[in-house]
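Page 37, continued from 36.
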């Protein structure tokens, strides 16, 4: 399998960041107390939502495991 283009990896990271910002903003608008109560969990899930797609593309780009 070929290499993953840099622009595609950048778009993936951008889409992940945008989705995290939208979800956190919606939670904040709908229920500020839920946002402050579950801040640690929201932070953890946000980090996972950003890192997992990037890690999968990086693995596919470098090693070709996911053919």
């Amino acid at each position: 399998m070929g290499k993953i283009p840099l622009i595609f990896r950048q778009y993936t990271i951008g889409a992940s960041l945008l989705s995290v910002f939208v979800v956190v903003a919606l939670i904040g608008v709908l229920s500020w107390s839920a946002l402050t109560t579950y801040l640690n969990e929201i932070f953890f899930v946000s980090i996972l939502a950003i890192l997992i797609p990037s890690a999968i593309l990086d693995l596919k780009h470098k090693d070709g495991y996911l053919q």
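DSSP finds three helices and no strands in the chain. Flag for discussion at group meeting. Residues 6-62 form one domain.
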